[in-house]
Amino acid sequence: MYFNGVKINRKNIDEIRRKMGMVFQSFGLFSHLDVIENLCAGPIKLLGKSRTEAEGKAMDLLRIVGLSERARHFPHQLSGGQKQRVAIARCLAMEPEVILFDEPTSALDPTMVGEVTAVIRGLSKTGLTMLIVTHEMSFAQEISSRVFYMDERGIYEQGTPAGIFENPQKSKTQAFIYRIRSFHYKVESRDFDYAAMLAGIDNFCFSHAVADKSAKKLRLIAEELVINIVVPRFGVCDLSVSFSERLSRYEVIVTYPGNSEDALATAADDLARVMIHNTAGEIVHTFVNGANTLRLTL
Amino acid sequence: MKKGIAVVLLCLVAVPALLWGCSQAQAEMARSEDFIGGDKVFTNQSDNYFEPATYEDFKGKRFSILTGSLFDGVADRIFNASEKLYFNNTIEEIEAVKLGKVDAALMDDVIATLSLQEGQYDGLQALTVPLAELDFEYGVFSVRQDIIEQYNEFLAQIKADGTLKEIQERWLKSYAFEAVMPEILLTGENGTLTVAIMATYPPFTFAGESGEFSGFDVEQLRRFAAWLGKDIRFVDMDFGAMMGYVASGKADIGGSVYITNERKESFLFSDPDYVSKTVLVVRKHKQETPAPGQQGIITLKIPAGSDAASVDAARDKTGAGFIEWIKSAIHRNLITENRWKMILDGLGVTMTISLLAQVLGTMLGGVLCFVLMHKSRFISGLGRFYCNLIRGLPLVVLLMISYYIIFGKTDVPSMLIAVCAFALVEGAGVASNLKGAIDTVDTVEIEAARSLGFTAFGAFQKVTLPQAVKRALPAYCAGFIELVKATAIVGYIAIQDMTRAGDIIRSRTYDAFFPLLFVAAIYLIVTSICVYLFKKLVRMINKEMRLGKCILTA
């Protein structure tokens, strides 16, 4: 790990930490010290500032986070949002080159999230480098200059906020951004338990509060496509029923093996084909890596 | 705080009042027993009450015995005792008879006779046991051959010139508390003779004027020291501790004890300087006239106007009430012979040991806490082992081990040993307490301090320690209070603290309760003051922490 081109090791870590602030999920304010002392501890002890100078600077910072009135209060007398703002001010008191935020709003009541994000938003305008780990998507989209989606033990996808939030490329990113919920069922033989599959779809729609009308349509498409068209012809397939909370989009995706062939177009069962065509809005067939995919969108 | 003071005051008044009430009831009973008519029958005497003709009636009864004395064996051998209670001094033995806890106390005739002069023991009497095998010889003991030889030579000399007879007359044949110790010139040119004695054993050894040791043994040993051209130092302790004290070589010589074959195996004894008879101290009974064949009750003339007589007078006027009782008790136990000075000196010793042990213990505890927190499992394990070891031992045992085994052969003053022993215990307590408090400090705060750039030690100093100290303080204060009280056991290693001073006074005044109560009251006052001061300290520290060094003005 490098900081400003210097490799971080045990020897220089304390030195580097002085230039690198950190805001914790659970605040980490020194509970035996009042707000002003929390802010002054580092600068006096580590930066060698005089008490007058440190306190002056601390008051300026408290004004920035809107808490100058609370200078002589103790952490236990503050609300969660106030504590987190003090923690941010404490970081700033060390005049860091970068601040790390570890889920700064996760431990907060939803009503207090706003006051903390407002402070961070204000800071973002000053040009200070900030690295924020957060689940507040709209907040991230709004203030970030670069977004990393973390999954599978590392950076899964990265890009500009526009790139990640408007047009995610990878499936997990998409599932996360679009808040996609899905139901999977694997058909392994012609004698599969179709009743269990249909019950699974019903259950999925019920537990995610899918509107009755849409639920019926999804069930109909899945039933006709899998039971009457794909399975009689190919024997096996993967069914995926999903919907995006964010885009209000419902999809049925069926994957099956074989040569490139649009099973729906070549289906022998006309009735089933017509019913599907009438129910689905958009039907796309693709063939990638030896697998056919039929994507039907409501 | 006011509530606390009220409770303390209430205790100080209520407890003596209660005791006074008890003693009144007892006196009442004693009187009615004395003047009982021939045809009246006592129904409340059914338990443990019987009419002895001779000492033989006490076979199979319950006995009180001085811890470590050879009456232990006598009680079994001669009396086939059904139960034995052990006490550390004569007064407690006799008190047990008076309270009916035992049926008889086995002791030396002169000791019993002297004790029974006191007004509060009107209801008791001494029965001699006319068995030759219970005539015991007294002699001093030592582990050093040369000293014993010198003593025997000295003894032969004073026997020959009649000095010994004079000493015996003075202390054993008349009222010892009135006797005056003759001036004996101690030059000290040949060093100092250290003597272990039990100061609660009149008339052989007791604390006289202002706590000066006095009595038969004391005069004899002073003369011996003078004869050797040495100065003398008496070290007072419980009877049970004397043997160990002399055996470990801390004292050159031990004051007179009975010479027995068993003891001769461990010690060298001088020639006997006195032969005593054994008596049973028992409760008096309905018949005042001795039955035929019963041994006569020993009487001893008390000089008019003596302490005991005036006490008797005060006792007789029980109608004068509580205030009178308190007044006479204070006079008897504290003012006479400036006995309050002994209590005061004892308090000084108690506080010196407590404070020094607390200071040393705190330092040790601080170091030990770091050991406990050490990353190496081996080192922290050692710390834990130490804590468990120390806290698993009773304090008395630890104290005696330090005194007789660890520092047994050395010349380290016993005060220092006591301070060290208590510091070891206090250190373990402080360390565990501090470690516990440190563990409660939120790790996020430490991480936050590290993230600001504090080093591990810096974070400990700035964040962990202030919080831990604040949390550990109440238990720390309680620990000191415990320590003050725990020092009451230093009497075991021959230190005259406040508790021991109370014991010595009791052995003089034969007042079983008042010195105890007085000492208890002083402990209570001292600990209350400590609690108050600590509360102030805690408040001050908290205030200091709250306000910090901030110069910010509104």
General description of the model:
The complex is a heterodimer of chains A (298) and B (554). With 298 residues, chain A is an alpha+beta fold. Chain A has 2 domains: 2-144, P-loop containing nucleotide triphosphate hydrolases (Rossmann fold, 3-Layer(aba) Sandwich), CATH 3.40.50; 178-297, Histidine kinase-like ATPase, C-terminal domain (Heat Shock Protein 90, 2-Layer Sandwich), CATH 3.30.565. Chain A is 43% helix and 22% strand. Chain A has helices spanning 13-18, 35-46, 51-64, 80-93, 110-124, 137-143, 161-166, 171-177, 194-207, 212-234, 270-279, and strands spanning 2-3, 6-7, 20-23, 98-102, 129-133, 147-151, 154-159, 180-187, 237-244, 249-256, 282-288, 291-297. In chain A, helix 2 (35-46) runs parallel beside helix 4 (80-93), helix 3 (51-64) packs across helix 4 (80-93) and helix 4 (80-93) packs parallel to helix 5 (110-124). Chain A is elongated. Chain A starts with a strand and ends with a strand. Chain B has 554 residues and is α/β, with parallel strands linked by helices. Chain B has 4 domains: 1-42; 48-134 and 277-302, 3-Layer(aba) Sandwich (D-Maltodextrin-Binding Protein, domain 2), CATH 3.40.190.10; 136-275, D-Maltodextrin-Binding Protein, domain 2; 339-546, MetI-like fold (Orthogonal Bundle). In chain B, strands 5, 6, 10, 11, 12 and 13 form a 6-stranded mixed sheet that branches. A 5-stranded mixed sheet of chain B has the order 2-1-3-14-4, sandwiched between helices. In chain B, a hairpin with a 3-residue loop joins strand 7 (200-201) and strand 8 (205-207). Chain B is elongated and about 90 Å long. Chain B starts with a helix and ends in a 7-residue tail after the last helix. Mean pLDDT of chain B is 80; it is low at 29-49 and 286-315. The A-B interface holds A 14-15, 17-18, 20-22, 24, 26-34, 36-37, 40-42, 45-46, 51-52, 55, 59, 71-72, 74, 87, 90-91, 94 and B 442, 444-445, 447-455, 458, 462-463, 466-467, 470, 545-546, 548-552.
